[in-house]
Amino acid sequence: xxxxxxxxxxxxxxxxxxxxxxxxxxxxxxxxxxxxxxxxxxxxxxxxxxxxxxxxxxxxxxxxxxxxxxxxxxxxxxxxxxxxxxxxxxxxxxxxxxxxxxxxxxxxxxxxxxxxxxxxxxxxxxxxxxxxxxxxxxxxxxxxxxxxxxxxx
Length: 153
What we know:
4 helices; about 30% helix; elongated; alpha+beta; 5 strands
């Protein structure tokens, strides 16, 4: 592990996102809460929260952190795309980017697991950090980047 003993304890926040692309009928089933396995979004939300709290156990060399809060939210971007946004905060010596990414990814994997029986064409894509704040390196926002000249495919 990286030695963070000399770092200051500060308030830290990270936001990550992921997308799950599926057939329109599958997303409609999720939105109407008519899936045979139950409320897909609530199960995925709980899985994302639980995963964020266990990131130190899941990702090699990640520090176990005292998580202050975790939120996992969902929004339908169109008739086939479910956007997932995970926000994690802590007051610690190191950031929570990995916790936010783990929460978003686990929520997406849970959606996949719950609906794969009705839609094998699901695609999980665009898992990425959107924002981080706190710590020595300061704030960072994906929206502030000039992505027009970079290959992010």
